[in-house]
Amino acid sequence: MQTITDYLNLPFIEVLKHLMKDAVKDCLAESGVLANLVNASAKTKKRDPEGLTAKEALEFLNENGYPMKKGQLYKETSKNTIPHWKFNNKLHFKEDELLSWAEGRLVSGKAVGVLKKEDRPKKKGGGR
Q1: Percentage of the chain surpassing pLDDT 70?
Q2: Which long-range contacts does 48-51 make (Cβ < 8 Å, 24+ apart)?
Q3: H/E element holding 96?
Q4: Contact 84, 91 (CB under 8 A)
Q5: In the chain, what's the furthest Cα-to-Cα distance?
Q6: What SS3 class is residue 32?
Q7: What is the DSSP code (8-state) at residue 35?
Q8: Per residue in 56-93, pLDDT tens?
Q9: Nearest by Cα to 91 from 70, 65, 68, 121
Q10: By C-alpha distance, which of 83, 49, 86 is closest to 64?
Q11: Most buried residue, 4, 26, 45, 91, by CB count within 10 Å?
Q12: At how many degrees (to 10) do helices 54-63 and 95-104 cross?
């Protein structure tokens, strides 16, 4: 809205909406919140399904119902049980390979993230 005459032809509630909207926009612009939101949305990038980093691979697995921690991921890569690639000493993964690997680890098609008996760590220490 530019002038007061523009507001005269509108119902009071519409005038109030415009005034509040402009006030909030000005407040956000002055505080820098609006600029931060624009920068944050510009920084977000889509991940490449053919070249996931270890962090992105963990996010992908957890988002798809296969909970895994960072240590477990590194353990699986060191045992070569999970499909991965190394480039410049950095781990890389592919989404489709991770998904098929995770689905292959399902026990009787129902349980997610359950270790098979041979995958469980051996107990340390002596028994009583």
Answers
A1: 71
A2: 49/94, 49/95, 49/96, 50/94, 50/95, 51/92, 51/94
A3: helix 95-104
A4: yes
A5: 90
A6: coil
A7: H
A8: 999 888 888 888 899 999 999 999 999 999 988 899 99
A9: 70
A10: 49
A11: 91
A12: 50
